Amino acid sequence: AIPVRSSRLPLLSDAMPAPAHLFPLIRNCEMSRICSTVCYCHHKHLCCLSSHFAHSHFRYAPQKKFAALYRPKENFNHFFHTRDYASTPQRFYLTPPQVNSILKANEYSFKVPEFDGKNVSSVLGFDSNQLPANAPIEDRRSAATCLQTRGMLLGVFDGHAGCACAQAVSERLFYYIAVSLLPHETLLEIENAVESGRALLPILQWHKHPNDYFSKEASKLYFNSLRTYWQELIDLNSGETTDVKEALINAFKRLDNDISLEAQVGDPNSFLNYLVLRVAFSGATACVAHVDGVDLHIANTGDSRAMLGVQEEDGSWSAVNLSYDHNAQNEHEVERVKMEHPKSEEKSLVKQDRLLGLLMPFRAFGDVKFKWSIELQKRVVESGPDQLNDNEYTKFIPPNYHTPPYLTAEPEVIYHKLRPQDKFLVLATDGLWETMHRQDVARIVGEYLTGVHHQQPIAVGGYKVTLGQMHGLLTERRARISSVFEDQNAATHLIRHAVGNNEFGTVDHERLSKMLSLPEELARMYRDDITIIVVQFNSHVIGACQNEAL
Amino acid sequence: AARMFLRLLSDVRWRVANPKWRRMTCSPRSTSSTAEPHPVSLPAQTQVVICGGGIMGTSVAYHLSKMGWKDIVLLEQGRLAAGTTRFCAGIVSTARHVSIELKMADYSNKLYQQLEQETGVKTGYMKTGSISLAQTQDRLISLKRIASSLNVMGIPCEIITPKQVAQLHPLINIHDLVGAMYVPEDALVSSANVSLALATAASRNGVQIHERTSVSHVSVQKGRVTGVETDRGQIQCQYFVNCAGQWAYELGHSGEEPVNIPLHACEHFYLLTHPLKEPLASNLPTIVDPDGRIYIRNWQGGILSGGFEKNPKPLFTEGRNQLEIQNLQEDWDHFEPLLSALLRRMPDLEALQIMQLVNCPESFTPDMRCIMGESPTVRGYFVLAGMNSAGISYGGGAGKYLAEWMVNGYPSENVWPLDLKRFGTLQSSRTFLRHRVMEVMPLMCDLKVPRWDFQTGRQLRTSPLYDRLDAQGARWMEKHGFERVKYFVPPGKDLLDLDQSKTFYKPDWFDIVGSEVKCCKEAVCVIDMSSFTKFEISSTGDQALESLQYLFSNDLDVPVGHVVHTGMLNEKGGYENDCSIARLSKRSFFMISPTDQQVHCWAWLKNRLPDDSNLTMEDVTWKYTALNLIGPRAVDVLSELSYAPITPEHFPSLFCKEMSVGYANGIRVMSITHTGEPGFMLYIPIEYALHVYNEVMNMGQKYGIRNAGYYALRSLRIEKFFAFWGQDLDAFTTPMECGREFQVKLEKGMEFVGQEALLEQKQDGVYKRFTMFILEDHDTDADLWPWWGEPIFRNGRYVGKTTSSAYSYTLERHVCLGFVQHFDEKTGEALVVTTDFINQGEYEIDIAGQRFQAKAKLYPFSSLFTHRRRKDEVELSGYQRE
User: Fold this and answer.
1) Does any domain span residue B365?
2) Are B588 and B613 in contact (CB under 8 A)?
3) A245 and chain B: CB distance < 8 Å anywhere?
4) N or C: which end of chain A has fewer CB within 10 A?
5) Which residue intervals define the domain Rhodanese in the entry (chain B) (predicted)?
């Protein structure tokens, strides 16, 4: 089921650079005409188009997905301002039901089951959804309950240069984390079961949307690597209780290491051999939450983001960041990278806000091009299958590549002790954060989850209000509410806002429809893949835990 | 008492004169300067205690005291008229669908009109008239039906055009209207002041009124009220009247012996505005826009407008201690659809300034009709509550009927549709009520079409065959919580959605029911009739027979194995119940009554059977599943399933035998079908139900058996001129008036309830006569269908109303049943109705203003229906089976 590159990709790679050559020749007005025939588009997205052109001088991009390496950013917005409504030719737009069916295609909800009418978990449940911009989508998501330890794992993974790495991480990372958290006895029990061919204790209970697939072909390979890992853990038995933070870091690093090793060793099965190489040569960021009672750990690698929604005493919503982006905007991160390499490379390390002028995230899984030595890369590519050898991207070595590795999968782990006012957690790939401020995210999700009733009620009091004024006010409030009611899923609701928000922060159906009507090839220029998980917390349980602690 | 009256009156006068009074009563804790706390102590003993000082309590007190009962104490927990009555919109409207409600509203209107003159208390009565608007043709039909009944009652009323609407009211946008109904005599009042006026008059007549006194519970001994506990001490009394409004349910449950009063409160909102620049005239008609779900009346130069939204907010589900009425919040977002409807109806109001959005809870009942009458379990415990937001319209009339009920033992009109005993404990689950009132409140404005079924609170009582029947395409209706089949939709056939199926014309199931009727006529059908109320009455000696002979009008001293159709009459000879009684043995009887008689009939018999431990009565409704095998081949099916001979010689009509059917033994088989068609009723112990049903269906295959529902049954019984209790028959109808003298043992020299009245009628003749009408020039496909309540005209003069109707597939005509009266042309006095009077008239039935010629008949067309008749099996009687 793993998507294989189609034969039309070389065609695209020929086509892509063309606009770059034309670019200086096209005057602004012509450009706007071209764009307007494509769609009405917000300036932010226009600039993503322009930035795309601006950077497409990298001939090495063999497929448009490589564009994911070049993240469009807000600061390129000086090209076009004209919004040409008049010249927009009449075209077919999606009706609201069609829009909804697109938005809801990938939505998934999980409610933590109740026992004796009570949910004793600190998590009420979660909503998740994703909206593709790439075809196929390069984002992945995972959610699972740990069965041998307590707690729940949730994560979003943003792939680049293909989806292979994100796919592999989404399948494997939670097993690595769960194993890292297991006590020694359980590890022994599992190993003995495998040894004697008995049934294994289930480690994770997955909560998957039907579209979230697992690769059958690689499961044996993945299992063997995992088994090696727990055997090492058994041998290492430190006797100490497992620290969650440490477990998360170890799991991330170990998985990345396994991905790298598997690609170096290869596999006799040619399909698998090609798969492990694609996994290693593509990349993925990961943002993972581990919730156990009031203990919340966020492990983040890359530029996806975790955000906590907090309800203030007055009922309003605020956002608390639970992760730091690993990119050029993060000074500490730039500092860290510079520390790890000789002073001579200081200038070439970060260029145009990218690692070695190429990569947006400063930490990632896979991406062996930024980790392996040049020799290793050449050896693997040459001995690899023909498809790999024909691929310009894999053969291309980043410029100024002197002291690898330049990239790590080691996560930054943040611990937060949940309080009753912490109502929900949003994990999302940068596709969301590019378009929405976290404060708006907190407000929209908060209002959605608490329902309409928390919209501040109107009271006339002693004010002079006419029936007409009141009617206008109520109609406007109603419009806001109805957009909430359209969605049964908080993540879907957020995506609707992310894609369809107008200048006033309300969903504009026409705009939403246009954005979703974009043909596959163009969609990526206007938006990125968006993946969102919204975890809702159980304030009663959290409050009770807090009281117990007191 | 005199001092009390003076204090109260001065208090009332002071309040009315003082403009601050409005605010004073809103906060019950503020004390007025004149009303020192509890100047008069409670009496130790009284005849009647009324709980609740709203419009209902004061109206009951007023009418009781007028009828001569003086020893009455009225207790109010806060201040008089400070509950829902205080917030009521004050619209007195006679435009009602149910005729008893219409009569109550008409009486209230006339009472309020002269109340100010009678009591000296200003009631704010203003005859403004009301206009009900129609945005659709269906709505106009609905209004025309009301107009027809108002007109024959002598209440002025006309259907007017949109242009006429504009002339009557300057602000109305008429562009989307198709017509309207104008009732010029409808009025506005200040409801709190009406209540105070009634209290003033009552206290003048000797009623003691105590405010700030709460009833904590009602004491009961041996099934009778003995007194009340209040927060200020005890009062002994013989009668207790629960007029506690939305607290009536809780109060009913506070005693040792719970009284179920199924009602539930919903929030209700209306808007008050400041006056218009040019203040509205105070005599401007009230506007009701049911399609916009709103009403609009003038209020102090501005308007008062509220409505019944689609998504009501029920409250107080868990009782009163959560929220006080005074603290309810305005909810503008909730009001938005109604505000939009208001501005659409009167666009010029845009600039009008808001004064307040009032949130006043109203109580609603499971069937949108109010609740009155005596508790079936506690004698002397009366109830008047659950007004479904029409308290001020019904207040006067309802109070009058209840007072008559208490004083005379029965009211002067048939109030069965409002009787508390139509409900049982099964309607008093809070969850049921909460869900049901959420459906009922929007219904206030929904189109009232024939054959409408509630959608909430369903599948409560079901037959053991429910799933089997459902899987075969059954469509269900509900009676007294019991699911009953309307008809079976054949595989591959689809009916309209619920909303689209609403019609005043030919319904979509017409052909389906037609084929079920055909099968009943030509082959055999099975109808599950398990919902019927079934009692067993037995004794060690002759007590059962003796008691039943006294309580029932027909002769029950028949050989064992006979079935008797008989009425259970009241002293006036009217039908309290109409039932079939099988004599199982010398000393035991099996009694089958209509479904909704379960509570009423039980209470009636319990109160009248001698208190004798040797005489037992048991409700066995739940123990038996009843299958009705209707049709000429029923005898063949049953013969094959049991080896007992069931040919007419061995099993004549109106017989009951216990026999085996298939493997199951002990099935009570009766040769009755409740339709006049040949066939059998099988009373099957429930554990055998599925077995017997399967056997019957398998064996019946070769005789063309199929399932049928109540709509087929209804068509069959109406074309056979069978009357239904609860629809055609009521406590004001005697056997003489519906041609059933043969069901009465007048000549046997035995005494029974109602005998005197019947003997009198036999001598003097009857004043109304049950008659069958066959519509002549009615086009089933194109014309409006009759329902019930249509006026009947004889030689152009109004003579009565229909009580039920159905399409007869045999006659290919509509058949209406109804009562014909004879009013003197000059004086309007009711005269004796003779057979000649019936036979010598030209009749017309008025359906929503359109008159159709009808042929009157006093006897059914028996010859038309004979297929394979046996010589004596004509079931000469008919009786209610809705």
Assistant:
1) yes
2) no
3) no
4) C
5) 48-91
Q: What is the interface size between A and B, counted as CB pairs within 8 Å?
A: 59
**Enclosing H/E stretch for B838:** helix B835-839
Interface of A with B in 50-109 (CB under 8 A): none
How many angstroms separate the Cα of B196 from the Cα of each of B22, B73, B82, B247, B793? 14, 15, 10, 20, 43
Q: What is the pLDDT of residues B776-827, one digit of tens each?
A: 999 999 999 999 999 999 999 999 999 999 999 999 999 999 999 999 999 9
Residues of A in Cβ contact (< 8 Å) with B339: 467, 470-471, 474
pLDDT digits (tens, 9 = 90+) for B633-642: 999 999 999 8
What's the domain count of chain B? 2
Read off the CATH number of the domain in which B356 is found: 3.50.50.60
Gyration radius from chain A CA atoms: 24
- Examine residue B412 and state whether it is found in any structural domain, yes or no: yes
Q: Give pLDDT tens digits for B265-297.
A: 999 999 999 999 999 999 999 999 999 999 999
- In this prediction, the answer to ipTM > 0.95 reads no
Q: Which of B339, B350, B357 sits opposite A460 (nearest CB)?
A: B357
Contacts of A481 in chain B (CB under 8 A): 333
- In degrees and rounded to multiples of 5, residue B243 shows phi and psi of -120, 40
Q: CB distance B330–A455 less than 8 Å?
A: no
Structural domain contains residue B628: no
User: What CATH number does residue B862 fall under?
Assistant: 2.40.30.110
**Which of B390, B421, B452 is the last residue before a domain boundary?**
B421
Q: CA of A468: which chain B residue's CA is closest? A: B350
The residue from B396, B421, B446 where one domain ends is: B421
Model pTM score: 0.70
The reply to whether B391 falls in a domain is yes
CB contact under 8 A, A475 and B340: yes
- b/e map B29-49, b = 16+ CB within 10 Å: eeeeeebeeeeeebbeebebb
Which residues in chain A have Cβ-Cβ distances shorter than 8 Å to B299?
none
Q: Look at the block and give the residue holding tokens 């199924």.
A: B262
Which domain covers residue B856, as residue numbers?
Answer: 765-881
Structure tokens at B684: 């099957």
Residue B645: Cβ within 10 Å count:
9
Contacts of A468 in chain B (CB under 8 A): 343, 349-351
Which of A465, A466, A477 faces B333 most closely, judged by CB atoms?
A477
Q: Nearest residue of A to residue B333 by CA position? A: A474
